Amino acid sequence: MTTEHPTAPVPGRTIAQLLADGLVSAGVEIAFTVPGESFLPLLDALPPRGIRVIAARHEGGAGFMAEAWGQLTGRPAAVIVTRAVGASNLAIAIHTARQGSTPLIAIVGQVRRDLLGREAFQEADLVGSIGKLAKWAVELRDPAVAPGAIEEAFHRAVDGRPGPVLISVPEDVFTETTPDRRFANATRPTERRDPEPALARVMDILRLVAAADRPVILAGGGVLRSRGTRDLVRLAEVLEIPVVAGWRRGDVFPNDHRLYLGMAGYGSPPAVRERLEEADVILVLGSRLSEVTTFGYAVPAPEARWAHVDREPRAAGSDDGEPVISLAADADAFLRAAVRCLAGNVHDKDRYDARRDANARDRERFVAETVVDAEPWAGPGVHPGRVVAALQAALSPTTVLTTDAGNFAGWVARGFRFRRPGTFLGPLSGAMGYGLPAAVAAALVAPDRPVVAVCGDGGFAMTMGELETAVRYQLPVVAVVFDDRRYGMILDHQLRGGHESVGTTLGHVDFAAVARACGAAGYTVDDDAELVPALAEALRERGPAVIHLKVDPRWLSVDRRLDAEEEPAREAEVVEPAPSTTEEPDDTAEPPPSTTEEPDAAVLEAEIVAGAVLATELDVEEAQIFAVAAEDGSFVEITEIAEIVRMEEVVELTEVADAAEPSEATESPEPTEASEATDPIEPAEPAEPVAGEAASEAEADATA
Ligand SMILES: Cc1ncc(C[n+]2csc(CCOP(=O)(O)OP(=O)(O)O)c2C)c(N)n1
Ligand SMILES: [Mg+2]
Fold first, then answer.
1. pLDDT tens-digit profile of 259-304?
2. Are strands 216-219 and 243-245 parallel, antiparallel or unpaired?
3. Which domains does the chain have, with CATH numbers?
4. Total-model pTM
5. Which of 29, 470, 583, 631 has its CA 20 to 30 A from that of 577?
6. What spacing in Å lies between the alpha carbon of 482 and ligand 2's midpoint?
7. Which atom of ligand 1 is nearest to the CA of 430?
8. Cα(16) to centroid of ligand 2, in Å?
9. Is 431 in the pocket of ligand 1 (CB under 6 A)?
10. 232 C-alpha vs ligand 1 centroid, how far in Å?
11. What are 294-335's pLDDT values in tens digits?
């Protein structure tokens, strides 16, 4: 099927108009941008053609939004940025789209042609630098050849293994004209169904897996992109073959299905790797077999026989690591053919029954190993596994969950069960800062579905400016921030490798207050009891919201809990602010004394009495973890103080302080988050209408 472009192309179009027409023909409905003076004619050309323009707060955020849009819809979004500065910020998203095989069209306004090569203002070799991160890159210096180059770029974004393309356009080229009539009747990528592969090849693969004792299907993003989940479920059931999802492709198969055995890669329970390694036959479907999914290329094991069905499969061969069958096909095209081939076929009942029993045992083990909230535990702070359980209970099956990078994500990877395809978005590059912008994009794709971003304190802070973007477009995004006040994953690596804990300690950020400052709702969750009500309210309000979880820092990862003595002392330069009161700031109040200098040991000793007052509110064990207020309102870690005053002395001091009137500096604030959090959200601007029927179409795609 073909589509007519709303405004028929005419001879003599400018390159800006040609690009905009081309974007429409390529199925692009949305362009994310941080505007720059280098591409204003292109911005002019987009809204008249029905392309919605979304302004982000940072090019990295804009790029992640475009990547997430591409993942969810299978169609590219555009991201348009300016010269070397915008392109540099965008680089992380281009890399992420490359690793995730996500179609994306990046357009960068370049300096004028007469300035090229002179190290002009914000000039860089975009094709030779950032362009190398993309699947393909081109600079449009010659308007005469621009139409062909644009067509080529758009084609490459979706052809074969999809990916990001970069088009650099010198500023003066946008207004050049071209008589080219291309893009009048291009075919939109999602309206094209790949032809089914030859049935004989499909049968070869089915015979290979049907005759195996311990076969497994490893399913990746290609199944999601081709909307192949339904046929994958049929194939798995008919052949009684279990399914493992590729890393961050956990929604490829319903996780509550008896044949689902988990998601490979970081956060997976031991059963997943073991099951993959002991498989005698693996059908790899729509996966490029990344380092993470294959546990460092350990899977498929050298002795395993495996078939690779992918748009760009590995070549077949008889050497270790090579597939015995290689089939270049879209995952769904293969699956449709496979399901048809299987209908009416006779299966070996004994083998089927044996597999069924083994699969039931494997599933039992998987279920047992993915319980993340069972152990008895009483705080302080929030237990990450219980957060996952609370999310599971609160979120509807169609909720889109996006994730950032970090150790907190291991809990979600291990414990959360996705029930529908198109409900999980994560950066295959492991890029921090992805979660919130991806959630913004998901809410734009499907405004009626709840969207929850799970983030660490480190990653969230990288792109939290996009909260204002969510507010501006009135998007129902809830960000859940696991705050352990550190770059936890890197600390994990440091401790495992016998390194010092250098550079991994972070200070306090009041993320709920940040949310409110951006016009979103903010909730602070200090313990498990507060989590469920906060989550329920945030989801009910449907507005942009942040739930700031004070995570118990003893949880280093889903697999490791630190003993008190293992926990590294917080770095001396991390200065703890006074606890946030969540009340409106009093502009007339004296600013607090500067706390940027490292506290002097002698001063600390003198101040410990005041500090100990806060400790009275905690028991001593908690006090070892939490900060203690010093008289000047700054915070110092009890572990540091312990070098000067032993814990018993702190207890004594606590008793002394108990008897005394608490000083102003150490009075604990009245908790007012709950009342503040109910404030209505006031967007800065009304939501923009979605171009045409884009939203409902996209939603249908995303939920297909
Ligand atoms: C953009 C980027 N910079 C650095 C890293 C390396 N890195 C991986 S995880 C991580 C720490 C993440 O911290 P946080 O978001 O707080 O999550 P946590 O591990 O503490 O749960 C870092 C720095 C990365 N993956 N991406
Ligand atoms: Mg952290």
1. 999 999 999 999 999 999 999 999 999 999 999 999 999 999 999 9
2. parallel
3. 15-173 (3.40.50.970), 199-369 (3.40.50.1220), 384-561 (3.40.50.970), 601-667 (no CATH)
4. 0.82
5. 470
6. 7
7. 25
8. 43
9. yes
10. 34
11. 999 999 999 999 999 999 999 999 888 899 999 999 999 999
